[in-house]
Automatic annotation (TrEMBL):
The gene is RNASET2. Keywords: Disulfide bond, Signal. The keyword Signal applies. This is Ribonuclease T2. The keyword Repeat does not apply. It holds the Pfam family Ribonuclease_T2. PROSITE patterns: RNASE_T2_1, RNASE_T2_2. InterPro entries: Ribonuclease_T2_eukaryotic, RNase_T2-like, RNase_T2-like_sf, RNase_T2_His_AS_1, RNase_T2_His_AS_2. It comes from Xenotaenia resolanae.
Length: 243
């Protein structure tokens, strides 16, 4: 038995190393998150709500945050994408800055990049843009006559329209009212993909996330009155027109 002991230790060490670098540890789902600028700007100061369409918030793998702190965002690497980035993925707090993209790259992109299909800044950002245009949420909602207006919707009609159209369940989030008599406000929509970029059901997490930079895209964000959470079936939904 004594002879085997070192061998077992080696084996255990080898196995645990294998587990750490194993592909099983890789993310398995990507969450394409889009925001309604006017709702985002209703909970942020110094905001530019002048976008009359859903804009990208991020492309988030389901595992990991800040996976490689030495891999810095470099906008030269996505030079050719910048016109589309400015239009489709604007920083609503500061439209002329690259800060938002830098933040999303460090927090989520460096983790997405653990997969060969997304292992460069260009691959990551161009895939996010590609998926954004492919799902074309803006046209989809219009097709179902869900347009920003002063009339309220039921959450079921929005959710059913989307689920029928995409064939998978999105995760739809609202800013909840502080008073009982008020509607909830449509704010953010997540559409999920597997590692091959095929549409997938999003799970419903009944957790609250907030719109603020620090915790907005953290799935386990803290509870705040202005926070976003999965829309309720019991409250009318307001989809606010762009000012
Ligand atoms: C919104 O306003 C900002 C700042 O005034 C400007 O930079 C941006 O181009 C505008 N966006 C649109 C879509 O009009
Ligand atoms: C982190 O990023 C740097 C810079 O791109 C790269 O050289 C390094 O291999 C990466 N580290 C890991 C663990 O992927
Ligand atoms: C940014 O990327 C460009 C183009 O790939 C490269 O020439 C440049 O050295 C990079 N800058 C930094 C600071 O890494």
């Amino acid at each position: 038995m004594r002879l085997y002991f070192p061998l077992l230790v080696c084996l255990a060490a080898a196995l645990s190393t294998a587990a750490i670098s194993s592909p099983l540890d890789l993310w398995t789902k990507l969450i394409l998150t889009q925001q309604w600028p006017n709702t985002f700007c209703s909970v942020e100061h110094h905001c530019h709500p002048n976008f009359s369409y859903w804009t990208l918030h991020g492309l988030w793998p389901d595992k990991g945050n800040n996976c490689n702190s030495s891999w810095h965002f470099n906008s030269s690497e996505i030079e050719d994408l910048l016109p589309d980035m400015k239009k489709s993925w604007p920083d609503l707090l500061n439209p002329s800055s690259v800060q938002f993209w830098k933040y999303e790259w460090s927090k989520h992109g460096t983790c997405a990049a653990e997969a060969a299909s997304l292992n460069s800044q260009h691959k990551y950002f161009s895939k996010a843009l590609e998926l954004y245009h492919k799902v074309d949420l803006n046209s989809m909602l219009m097709k179902f006559n869900i347009t920003p207006s002063d009339k309220y919707y039921t959450f079921s009609e929005i959710e059913e329209g989307m689920t029928n159209f995409y064939g998978v369940k999105p995760k739809i989030q609202c800013v909840h009212p502080s008073k009982n008599s008020e509607p909830q406000v449509l704010g953010q929509i997540e559409i999920c993909f597997d590692a091959d970029f095929t549409l997938l059901d999003c799970e419903k997490h009944f957790t609250i996330s907030t719109f603020s930079r620090g915790s907005l895209d953290h799935p386990l964000g803290v509870t705040k009155p202005s926070g976003l959470s999965v829309c309720s079936y019991d409250i009318p939904v307001y989809y606010p027109p762009t000012p």
